[in-house]
Design a protein that fits this description.
This protein is mostly helical. Bound molecules: zinc ion.
Length: 125
């Protein structure tokens, strides 16, 4: 997480060490977003994919710059066969954290799968 004003890395203080911006409102929003994220995790464990997707939409809506949010959102969307949205979510995760091996892995697995599905429909025709 970074200070939205001066982009200084967040060091755990509710006031930015560089520009003195009050970060408390941001921390509160982030906390709410994590509540939705935890809720989505629970729902995903119970395979309640529709509800989990709604929770993750709410989490991402509140706080967009958390790589894990987009990773989990992508996985849930993939379970709902919303593949293009899943790919978009993982691309966002990768954009936020270019070294995320999990995002890379998810993306390549799903693009392989889509490729295979395309091939099998071509064979049927
Ligand atoms: Zn700052």
């Amino acid at each position: 997480m970074k200070c939205p004003v001066c982009r200084a890395p967040f060091r755990g203080d509710p006031v930015c060490s560089r520009c003195q911006t009050n970060l408390l409102p941001l921390l509160e929003i982030r906390h709410h977003a994590f509540c939705y994220y935890n809720q989505a995790l629970e729902q995903a464990k119970k395979q309640q994919w529709e509800q989990a997707a709604a929770s993750m939409d709410a989490a991402v809506d509140q706080f967009q710059s958390q790589t894990e949010f987009h990773l989990l959102r992508g996985k849930i969307l993939a379970h709902l066969h919303r593949y293009h949205e899943a790919i978009h979510a993982w691309q966002t995760a990768l954009h936020l954290n270019p070294s995320s091996t999990e995002a890379q892995k998810c993306l390549s697995t799903l693009t392989d799968l889509i490729q295979q599905m395309k091939l099998s429909t071509q064979r049927k025709n």
